[in-house]
Amino acid sequence: MAVSSAERRFLDKVSIDEPWKLVETFSTMPRWRPEDVNASADVIVGRLRALGVPVEVHEPEIYLSVPLSASVKAGGKSFRAKPPSSTLSVPGGLTAPLVRLDANPKALRSYNRDIATLFGGSIRSVEEVKAKVGGKIVVMSGFGNPALTSLIEEWGGVGLIAVNPGIDIHWGTCTTIWGSPDLADLPRKPKIPVVAVNNPDGRELMAMADAGSEVTIVTEMQEGWFKQKVPVVKIPSANASKDFVLVHGHYDSWDVGVGDNATGDATLLELARVFFENRADLARSVWLAWWPGHSTGRYAGSTWFTDHYALELDAHCVAQINCDSPGCRWATSYHETRAFSESAKLATEVIRDIVPDADVKIMRPPQAGDYSFNNIGLPSLFMLSSTMPEALRHEKNYYDVSGCGANIAWHTENDTIEIADRDILLTDMKIYLLAALRIANAEELPFAWDATCDEFLDTIARYEAAAKGLADLAPARDATQALKAALAKLAGASTSASKKNEALRDLSRTLVPINYTREPRFRHDPAYTVPPLPTLAVAAEIASMPTDMQRYAAVELMRGQNRYVAALTAARRVVEGALG
């Protein structure tokens, strides 16, 4: 769709001047230690107030794990290393035999815990891998991610050395706990030390593992509850609507973190300025929030906000938009745009209205990136922003990373001012502004729930085919088709926009959790991959299971399908209720 004259008035107000000043300031401010994070929040708050934008500053206590130092010692040598956040602190060192595992590099980039996906045919069973790694420190290629760490621990490994792909070592996190832990989360706190090393050193350590060497891991962490600042701007609409769009991103970073995420912080600052100055032209409110605890708390800032504002988000938030790594060097493509199915059309149109020739491909968001709202059920779009064209990335021989517009400075000391690009940042700011504006000012909420139903039907068909006759998903398919038919009736009905919007908002509270979560509403799923329609996902595995396990899987599937059908039936009733 074309940009309207009303939208153009907003877009014409977007300027690079104030946001670039923040990028430059943050390029000199490391932002991962708790005191430095709070100091950078003060900068954001000061800039907002100088621009005349009212801002609330919350100071919750959130649980953080801050890496201090690490090393690896083997064969009479000491190797430089970094510990991911939430690793076990062993300042006195842990010594054990070294063992090597080989895995699929692409799978290690994700948060997948499936052995077949991770290792292909190199490991045939859990028993085999337990016998291999039990009591040993594992060295393997990849990043020390949460899913992999939890598996090594479950298999009896006593430590993990992640060999990063290049000459630099990347910071990261290794816990599956999402946000500050509660009592139920605590057992999943990592109980083994994890470190990352660079590729040349890692290859040497792998050779030592093949020779049967021992290794010593040393890690030192700062852990506990810390007061961290959460700046929140609430821009009221002209009609004082309680409904709002949430746009958010993290302001803590590894080192100075310019591309991840000073550019995102600057984008939020500019959106706050433009929306506040033009608030008389908003039909719904716009909230903007900056999170601490993204890097060292596994999204502890956004999770605190979700918990604290849970009922208000449930009642009035119509969508969330995540802003991470916009405006990075060479990032002129949008072929890895993240959005839920119902938001895909909106995201695509917004990008192409700002960048007419953009290569836009929509992908399912992973369990990452401050998507701390799935269990409430918010329609969602964006996570990472523009990225480098694949041809250019291959030309530069860059490996895959999860931010900074595909620049491999991601999560390293090299994520400095040259990673940001003024012109690309200006473009991305306009994309974010237009996306939020179209939701805020839409007479009818612009989410295509029929597309979500189509996604569900595709998933059901794929699972049923994988089951090879061992799973009957006809009840799930019928319930989905019935919901899609009801949505078609609602689209053509003369029902008022306000009544339709209320129904579609309530619909999202059912459809998003059933597609993205296993935990009950208002809890947070672990930080590893959730398959589409997780209550039905066992159908895709049942045919490959031993015969004696298939009966158990059938029981799980029956219960999961009951939950799915009940959820879709409830969603259909919401839609039918709006028809009168």
Which key phrases capture this entry?
3 domains, alpha/beta, 7-stranded mixed sheet, Aminopeptidase, 41% helix, 6-stranded mixed sheet, globular, 580 residues, Glucose Oxidase, domain 1
Task: Write up this protein.
This protein folds into three domains: 5-60 and 228-441, 3-Layer(aba) Sandwich (Aminopeptidase); 66-221, Glucose Oxidase, domain 1 (3-Layer(bba) Sandwich); 449-579. The protein is 41% helix and 17% strand. The protein is built from 18 helices and 15 strands. The chain has helices at residues 5-11, 17-26, 34-50, 105-109, 115-119, 126-133, 146-154, 199-210, 258-277, 300-308, 310-316, 341-354, 390-395, 422-441, 449-467, 474-492, 497-516, 547-579; strands spanning 56-58, 61-74, 77-80, 90-100, 137-141, 159-163, 194-197, 214-227, 230-235, 244-250, 285-291, 317-322, 334-338, 360-363, 380-381. The protein has a seven-stranded mixed β-sheet, sandwiched between helices. The two termini are 31 Å apart. This is Carboxypeptidase Q. Residues 232-424 form the Peptidase M28 domain. It comes from Bosea spartocytisi. InterPro entries: CPQ, Peptidase_M28.
